[in-house]
Write a structure and sequence with these properties.
The structure holds 2 protein chains of 2 kinds. By secondary structure, chain A is an alpha+beta fold. Chain A is built from 18 helices and 23 strands. The model of chain A has no long low-confidence stretch (mean pLDDT 88). Chain B contains 3 helices and no strands. Chain B starts with a helix and ends with a helix. The chains are: A alpha+beta, B mainly alpha.
Amino acid sequence: MLIRTKLFFGFFLILFVLIIFKLFYFQILKYSSENIINHISEKKILPERGKIFDINNQPLVLNNNNYKIYLEPKKIKEKNNLIKELSKILEIDETSLSAKIDEKKDWLAIDIVDKEKKDEIENLKISGIGFEYLIKRDYPEASIAAHLLGFVGKNYQGDDIGYFGIEGYYDKDLAGLPGFLKSERDLLGRPILVGKQEMIEPENGRNLILTIDKNVQVIVKEKLAMGIDRYQAESGCVIVANPKTMAILSLVCLPDYDQKKYFLFSEKYFRNPVISDLYEPGSIFKPLIMAAAINEKKIKPDDFFEEKGPVKIGEYSIKTWNDRYGGKTSMTQILQRSSNVGMVYVGEKLGKDSLYSYLQKYGFGQLTEIDLQGEVASYLKPKNSWYPIDFATVTFGQGIAVTPIQMIRAFASIINGGYILRPYVVAKIQDQDGKEKIIKPQVERKVISEISSLIIKKMLIEVVEGGELNWARPKGYTLGGKTGTAQIPIEGHYDPNKTIASFIGFSPDSSSPFLTLVILRQPKTSPWGSETAAPLFFEIAKELLIYYNIAPDNL
Amino acid sequence: MLTKIIWLLVVVLLFFNAYIFVSNLSLGDEIKTFDKKIVFIRQENLDLETKIFKLNSYENIASIAAQLNFVKKEIPVYLEDLKYAYKN
């Protein structure tokens, strides 16, 4: 019995000694701090960033697998072969790649590639090349809406962060919440089940479904590119919105940038001119003042005034754009002929206090609070610092700076029954469990009455039908709108050769209404909105009428 | 008798312990394999999703159209002498 017990204890003693030797081997002879760190694996589990879809659930921004290629110069055996093969696949010049490889370094990043290229490089089986897995943003429609969507870059800590547009505004929703894994692992990286195992699941970012229609965006972008080219403009923007809800259906500005290679572009390309740039709107502002005067019952569309010649305001003389004066002119004709002198008359009828109050009600000097990062508000100086000439010029859209989004919002209010709404681009926010938050149109205030809105709408339809724009109008369709040509103020005076040509137009169809603002900066073929922005609007409108299946109503 | 039972228990526990140890190892292995598979499937899913959506994209359609030479002909050809059109 005693011998058996001794044998038994002896057996265990040998086992313990063996274990102690093994521990001595790992902890003393083959000590590595990595082993200790690797024993408890602590890992941040990154959530997947939310995707962005258009109104028909067509993707605009997705996530895709990417790999950072890195080299370990000390492990490279065939340097020349590596340079030759890599430069072929990565389309990098051999000399630049060779210059990049510093043999003193342990590690250097080369490029970011997709899975296909990674597999191609892996198949070469060249030593010294490694890959690090990354999830990057992918744009199936390329830069179809670069200014609107923004891009994902890095912050100071090296984490992903959204910049500009939707990526910037909804960064917290899109980013999600990271998870956490703390797990005891053996030497081979297997979890030790009796050890500590803690895991907090990550919460993926929310998906966004936009009000933007990909098809409208494609139509608008193609036409704008053509327009900029044809009229030799410096840049241009088009916004299409539903005037009843102020849901943005399309927003394009050119030139734009490639979101995937944003780092190759300078910062000026990232600014969205629709929300970040101020400009003097010019004559497209006239209907706003006209609507205000109608609403205040100071004028009626069939009232007449005598357009005799330039009007004097202090030391300044205000003329019509062509210096021709039509005599007896109706209020509708003031808009048709875009008469500055006529608008000064309307402004005087409206009165200074009322005029200033309407500017505030239309939302000038305030943010529209559109859900895009980077919006600026124009400055509306206090009423007591306005000179008489300011009250006169503002009636035809000079001497006031606005953003295009402020302009289209104010214009929407005069054709939608008088409501100022908050413009928006995100229609739904969807979490990872499929729960949806629907964003509804938000009415902020009422500016003019339904009747005043109907009157000004009819006047604007007559502007298109009876004015010089009739030739460009799609036959059989009712469209309303107004041209604008604003001079650009440079160092205290207006440059007569540099203009911002614009047109704001709408389809009054009740089932699929659309309001479109076209802006061309410094067109060279003609400075006038009627000869550049207006034809471009009608080309866009023709396509939109077909797309929305709107039947002709005016045959 | 009691000693025998204790010995038997010790042996059973020893084997049971060894069994738990080995099954822990194999479970750990399985978890590691599944971890890898989950990561792989997730990546595969992302890849497939991107590929499907790309097939439906205007970018892809435009590039196929260009490859097939489906482009707008800027200048239409008008037949001035229709007799050629009626031939054959």
